[in-house]
Structures are given as structure tokens and as C-alpha cells.
Amino acid sequence: MTPALLLAALRARWLIFAVLLVGTVAAAAVVSLLLPKTYRAIATLVVDTREEQSLSNPFTPQRERAAYIQTQVDILTSEKVVRKVIDDLKLAETDWAREHFARSKSARGSVADWLVEALPKGLKVGTSQSNVIDVSFSFTDPVVAASIANGFAKAYLDTVLELRVAPMREAASWFDEQLKSLRTNLERAQAKLTEYHQRHGIVAADERLDAEFARLGELSTQVVRAQDQTIGAEASERQARTLLARGGAADRVPDVQAHPHIQRLAADLAQGEARLQELAARYGEQHPTYQSQLAETRGRRAQLAAEMRKVVDGLEASTRRARAHEAELRAALAAQRARVLALKESRDGLAVLARDVETAQKTYDAALQRFVVSQVESRANQANAALLNAAAVPRKPHRPNVTLNVALAAVAGVALGIGIVILLELSDRRVRSFTDLREVLDVPLLGVLGTWNPSARPALSGPQRAARVLPSPG
Fold first, then answer.
1. What CATH number was assigned to the domain covering residues 37-168+381-398?
2. Which of 66, 302, 316, 413 is deepest in the core (most CB within 10 A)?
3. pTM higher than the cut 0.85
4. Cα angle vertex 297, ends 292, 301, to 5°?
5. In the chain, domain spans
6. 273/398 Cα distance (integer angstroms)
């Protein structure tokens, strides 16, 4: 159906269209006026994602704020908050609640239980991109609507504070009990460490161990030096005994030759023998001077021999002394090594006890810190949300909206009227214009007659007008 044909059908059936339009609008207006009026009161809350009264991290990351706001919405619509509103406002004792409960077909249990299910139906919580939450409640009584909206806001603030303080209070109590046992463990560990210090006489374990290690190194050096001396003495003694055993003279022994006293006696003996030869050449062997010098030379030779025997015997004594000194140093080194090992064991035991004290101290400090945080937060007296705007008593009803309903009914009436006209036109098809003859019936058009009006002058007043209306024959 073309727009021109639709307009023609509407002109022809305008009465039906008008009746449907007026009827729809009138029905909507009547229904809107007859429906009970519902008032909506709105309270506004602002939520701060920071924890100003918390000793922990007071800042909430940006990505967690949306989830935090949604959590607050869930708390606000929770059953705990609903029951708190019912208890705070004593809604179960109101007349309108009892009347609605009595008329409700699905009412079960007490009035309070029924209100727990009924109140959320009138509650609406709205959020935006900010930290503001709108709490609206719809009811037939504007005063009750405002009271319940404010009741939800107050119950939410009380519940948030309770949910924040109650766990912290329990945590503080639990940490207080734990601190007692942790303090006992710390004192016990410190007592063990002190007793270990006293039992082993440890004042500064690290300094003493360093000194003992230095002493051990010094003794090790002395043992090596004494060992070298012993080896040298044994070699000298072995060389001297071998030489004497083969019949060699004692003066051929290197240690004898190198002895200063032997060298001095040998020099004196050489001088005496030279003096003796000189006296023999000058006075002869029977001269008293020669005899005196001969006796002196013989004494010196005997003294030299005796001293050489002492030096050879002294090599054995030096070897014995070197061995004894080496043995003493080795014993001292073994004792020092045992002392160092014992001190290391003591230090290891001391380190274990010191670590126990450190661990107990850290555990106690961590628990003490958590206790302080929990105790401080358990004393918080303000939630991280506040009432921005209290709900005022609404003056105009929120529903029904007569103007909106009439406007929508007008649109619906127009659509309904057009639809009915189209259906009637399709069921009872009529020729509305000369185009219907061409397009629908496909017949030749002889002419177009105007609307007949008896009071008007005749349509064919002369041959010229007829020629303009009717086609020429042929």
C-alpha cells in the first residue's frame, strides 16, 4: 500500500481512526488516574576507597575501585542490612506492614520475615563512574518511602562499620593471646642463650675465635721451624758420627770447624807450634824456653781435642733439645687445635641459640605489630562512607506518570488506528483514486469526475469544459 493510498484510506475511515486514538488515550489516562500512586525517595551516599583510620595501606588501586564499589552495593542490598532496617525502624510493628502482610497471598512466617523479602522489591541502588551511590525506595506513602530510604543508608553505614570493627576486634583478641606464648618463647630462648654464655665463658665469641686462630697459625709456623731445626741437628750429628766412625779426625767435622771457640783454639795452637819451631831452630830442643813452649803447645793441643770432643758431644745434645722442643710445640699445636675446635663447637651452639632468639624476636615483633594494627582499627568509630544527601519526602508521585502514559498511549493509538484502517482496507478493497484503475485493474481511464455536490453548478457547463474533462473520441 502506497502512502497516497494510505492517506486516502485514512480520510475515508477517519472516524474509526479517531475513535481508536481517543479510546486508547482515554483508557491510558483513566488507568493512570486509577492506579495507586507510588512515591520514590532517594538518599545519596559517598564512599571513600581510602582507609583513613587504618594503619595498613590506606590507598586502593584504581583497578580495584570498581570492585570495591560493587561490593558496597552488595552489602547495601544484603539481608543483614534489610533486617537492620526492619529492626531500627520497627517496621514489623507498623500498621501498613501488617495490612500488606495480611493481604499478601505468599506471606509466610512472621511480618519481619515477610518484610525481608518485600522491602528489596522497592529498593533500587544506582551507581555511576564516581564513588556516589544512590539509594532509592518506592512506596505508596511518601513519608514511609523517605524513612525507609534513610533507614537503608543508616543501616548500611552501621553495617560497614561493624563489618570493619568486629573482625579487627577478634583479631586483636587472638593476637593478644598469641603474644603471651610468643613472649614466653622469646624469654626462654634468651635465657638459654645467657646460660650458654655463662657455662662456656663466652664474652665475645668472634674475637676470641680470631685470637685462637691466630695462635694456632703461629704455633703451626713454630712447629715447621722446629722441625727444620731438628732435621738440621740430626743431619749434623749423623755426619759427625759417620766421619768419626770411619776414623776421621774431629776437626774435619763441619760443625767443629765452624765453632768459634774451636777456631780460636786452633789459631792459638798454630801460633804455639810456629813459636816452637822458631825456638827449636834458635835454641835447640833441650833449651828451657823450648821445653816451656813445648809444654804449652801440648796443653793447647789437649784443650783443642777436649773442646772438639765437647762440640761433637754437643751435636747429640742439640739434636735431643731440638727433638724435645719440636715435641713440645707439636703438643701445644694439638692442644691449640683442640681448643679451636671446641671453641668452634661452642660458637656453633651459640649461633643456633642466637638464631632461635632472633627468630623468636622477629615472630614476636610481627605479632605485636599486627596486634597494634588490629587494636587501633578495632577502635574505629567511622566508616569509610558517609551520607551525602538524606532522602527528603517526595512531593510528586514517581508512578504512574500520567503525561508519559498519555503520550505513549497516543503513539500506541495512532499505530493501532493505522493498523485497523489497513486491515479494513485490505479486507474491503475500494477504488480511492484513478491510479488504482491503472495499477490494480489495468483498465483505460476515460475521465475523472469531481465530487458530486447538488448545490453546486453543473460539472459540464459548456462544450469547452467538457472537452477538458472527457477525452476526444477516436
1. 3.30.1890
2. 413
3. no
4. 150
5. 1-35+400-443, 37-168+381-398, 205-376
6. 153
Q: Which amino acid is at 365?
A: D
Residues 335, 349: Cα–Cα separation, whole Å: 21
Tens-place pLDDT, residues 404-417: 777 887 888 788 87
Q: Which cell numbers hold the place of 64? A: 580495584
Q: How far is CA 365 from CA 220, 359, 372, in A?
A: 47, 10, 10
Closest C-alpha among 416, 396, 394, 395 to residue 28: 416
Answer yes or no: are the C-beta atoms of 212 and 336 closer than 8 Å: yes
Q: Which residues contact 161 (CB under 8 A, 6 or more apart)?
A: 380, 381, 382, 383
CA dihedral over 13, 15, 20, 25, signed as positive or negative: positive
What average pLDDT does the chain have?
75
Q: Which residues pair with 136 in a beta bridge?
A: 42, 124
Kindly state the cell numbers that stand for 263.
Answer: 777456631
Q: Considering only CA atoms, which of 144, 140, 135, 38 is closest in space to residue 91?
A: 144
Asked if 348 and 221 touch (Cβ cutoff 8 Å), the reply is: no
Asked if residue 312 lies in contact with residue 253, where contact means CB atoms within 8 angstroms, the answer is: yes
User: pLDDT digits over 2-46, tens only?
Assistant: 676 677 767 777 888 788 888 888 887 777 666 677 888 999 999
Q: How many CA atoms lie within 13 A of 286 on its CB side?
A: 0
Strands, sheet with 39-47, edge to edge from the N-terminal-most edge strand = 123-127, 132-139, 39-47, 385-389
Q: Could you identify the residue written with the cell 694456632?
A: 216
pLDDT of residue 43: 92
